[in-house]
Amino acid sequence: MTRTLLSRLAAAFAVVALAALLAPMYAEAQVNPTQSSVNEDAMFQALGTSGTVSGRVTIPDQASGNLIVPDNKAWAVLQGQTLHTLSIVAVVGMVVLLALFYMIRGKIRIDGGPSGRRILRFNAVERFAHWTLASTFIILALTGLNLIIGKSVILPIVGESAFGTLSAWGKVAHNFLAWPFMASLVLIFLLWVIHNVPNRLDWQWIKAGGGILKKGVHPPARKFNAGQKLIFWSVIIGGALLSWTGIMLLFPGEVATAADWQFYQVIHALVAAALSALVIAHIYIGSVGMEGAFDAMGSGEVDENWAKEHHSLWVEEVKSTQARNTAQVQTPAE
Ligand code: HEM
Predict the structure, then answer these.
(1) Cα 278 from Cα 176, distance rounded (Å)
(2) Which of 197, 223, 297, 306 has most ligand 1 atoms within 8 Å of CB, for mutation?
(3) Residue 228 CA, closest ligand 1 atom number
(4) How far is it, in rounded angstroms, from Cα 1 to Cα 175?
C-alpha cells in the first residue's frame, strides 16, 4: 500500500518536473513580451537617435510593424513645432494687422451717406450657400486649430477634463461638417465663377489700392472687385485642397500609407492656416470694417450709394436690366 502511494507520488513529481522544464521552451515559441519591439529602453534610445524600432506583424502591410522610424520623427517635429508656430503667427498676425488698419483708417464709411434706396445684391440661394460655407468653415477652422495648438494653448486654460470633452466633440464636428462645407463650396463656385473671371478692370482697382486706403477714391468694379476675386479664388482653391487632403486623412486605410498621411496632414494644416488668416480679413471688411457691407449677406439688399461707390459698373448693369424689363412689361403684346 505504502509502496503504491510512494510510486504514485514519484510519478506526479516527475510530471511536474518535466512541465517545469518544458514551460520556458513552450513560452519562447509564443509572444515574448520583452522582445525589442516592446522594449521601452530600446524605444527611448531610438527616440534620441536616427534608429528605427520595428516589430513583427502577420498582416500583409509590413510597414504597420514600425513603431518608430526616422521620417516620422522629422514629421513629429514639423507638426509639433513648425506648424504650431506658423498657425499662431498667421492668425494672430492678421488680427494685429487688422487692428492697426482700423486704428489708422477707421471704419470705411459711405462717402455720400446712405441714400435710403435699396438694391438687391444677393438672393436667398446665394446667401444660403454663403452662410453654410461660412459657418462650417469657422467651426472646421476652430476645431482643426484645436488639434494643432489646443494642447499648449487651451488645455492650460480650461483643464484636462473640459479639454478632453471639447476635443472629442471637436473631432466629431470636424469629420461631419466637412461634408456640408464641400457641398456649399461647389455651390458657391457654380453661382459666382462667372463674376470672378479676371479682367483689365482688376488691374485699375489694384493700382487704386481698392479705394480702401484713401477716402473719396472709388475705382470702378462690376459685381466683384479684384480684392473679392482674390478671396473667391483663395476660398475655391484652398477649399478644394482642404477637401482633397481631408478625404485622404478621413479614410486612411483605403487610400494612403503612413508616409502619405504625413504629407496630406502637412498640406492640410498649411492651407488651413493661410486660408484662415485671409478669411479673418474678409470677415473684418464684411462686418465692422466697412459701413453697409454686411447688409449684402444679411438682408441681401444694399444701400444704393454704397453700391455706386464700391460696384459702380454692377449698379449700371442692374439698372439697365431693370429698365429693359420694365419696358417689356409696358409694351403690350400684339
Ligand atoms: C461672420 C463671418 C462672415 C461675414 C460677416 C461675411 C460677410 C460677407 C459679405 C458681406 C459678403 C458680400 C460682399 C459684397 O457685397 O460684395 C461676403 C462674400 C463672400 N464671402 Fe463671406 N462672410 C463671412 C464668412 C465667410 C467665410 C468663413 C467664407 C469662406 C470660407 C466666406 C466666403 C465668402 C466669399 C467667397 C464671398 C464672395 C467674395 C467676396 O465678396 O469677398 N465668408 N461675405
Answers:
(1) 24
(2) 297
(3) 41
(4) 78
- With a 6 Å cutoff on the Cβ, whether 68 touches ligand 1 is no
In angstroms, rounded to a whole number, what is the distance separating the alpha carbons of residues 228 and 244? 24
Quote the cell numbers at residue 288: 465692422
* Reported pTM: 0.82
Residue found under cell 479673418 = 280
Grid cell, residue 278, equals 485671409
Pocket lining: 228 vs ligand 1, CB cutoff 6 Å:
yes
Contact 278, 90 (CB under 8 A): no
Tens of pLDDT, residue by residue over 150-199, are 988 899 999 999 999 999 999 999 999 999 999 999 999 999 999 999 99
Picking from 181, 223, 229, the residue whose alpha carbon sits closest to that of residue 203 is 229
Domains, the chain, with CATH or none: 30-68 (no CATH), 70-330 (1.20.950.20)
Q: Which of 273, 145, 267, 289 is nearest to 213 (CA)?
A: 289
Task: Evaluate: CB of 163 within 6 angstroms of ligand 1.
Answer: no
Residues 23-47 have pLDDT tens digits of 544 444 455 555 555 566 666 666 6
